[in-house]
């Protein structure tokens, strides 16, 4: 039965790329996503990054198509932020990532606010990218 004002969704609605567990401390409140467009980001160029406002973390989103269905996961980028993670942007001038943050409701941020510059140094990193 269709209720007035509500859209009826088919039984097989599009599936999300990845579920991020709140119970396991992966993310309890997303702070946005950004595509890495800079050549200065080495192996992460053209990858999607996810910011966790709630956990103050940065993730690379892994994606793969398998039998016509997209599937994915996330891998944490091992950095410590000055506050939560949200509203990230790649600066077209220097090609680096800038992440803003603040301490508020449902975040474990250590600082009241912050603006972090995150850059790829070229040093060896061990985490999946594909």
Give structural attributes.
globular; 130 residues; three-stranded antiparallel beta sheet; mainly beta; 0% helix; four-stranded antiparallel beta sheet
- Which structural class matches the secondary elements? mainly beta
Strand content: 35-45%
Radius of gyration: 17 Å
Strand order of the largest sheet: 1-2-3-4
Mass-distribution shape = globular
Low-confidence stretches: none
The pLDDT mean sits at 88
Helix content: under 10%
Distance between the termini: 43 Å
Number of helical segments?
0
What's the β-strand tally? 7
Strand count, sense and barrel status of the largest sheet are: 4 strands, antiparallel
**Helix and strand element order:** EEEEEEE
Description of the structure:
With 130 residues, the chain is mostly beta strands. It has a domain at 30-118. The chain is built from no helices and seven strands. The chain has strands at 30-35, 48-52, 57-66, 69-77, 86-90, 97-102, 113-118. The strands form two sheets. Strands 1-2-3-4 form a four-stranded antiparallel β-sheet, with no helix packed on it. The chain starts with 29 loop residues before the first strand and ends in a 12-residue tail after the last strand. The mean pLDDT is 88.
């Amino acid at each position: 039965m269709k209720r007035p004002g509500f859209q009826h969704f088919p039984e097989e609605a599009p599936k999300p790329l990845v579920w991020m567990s709140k119970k396991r401390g992966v993310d309890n409140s997303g702070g946005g996503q950004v595509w890495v467009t800079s050549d200065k980001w080495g192996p992460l160029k053209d990858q999607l990054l996810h910011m966790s406002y709630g956990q103050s973390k940065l993730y690379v989103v892994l994606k793969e198509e398998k039998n016509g269905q997209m599937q994915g996961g996330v891998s944490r980028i091992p950095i410590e932020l000055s506050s939560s993670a949200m509203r990230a942007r790649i600066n077209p001038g220097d090609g680096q990532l800038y992440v803003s943050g603040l301490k508020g409701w449902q975040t474990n941020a250590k600082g009241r606010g912050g603006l972090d510059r995150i850059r790829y140094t070229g040093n060896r990193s061990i985490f999946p990218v594909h």
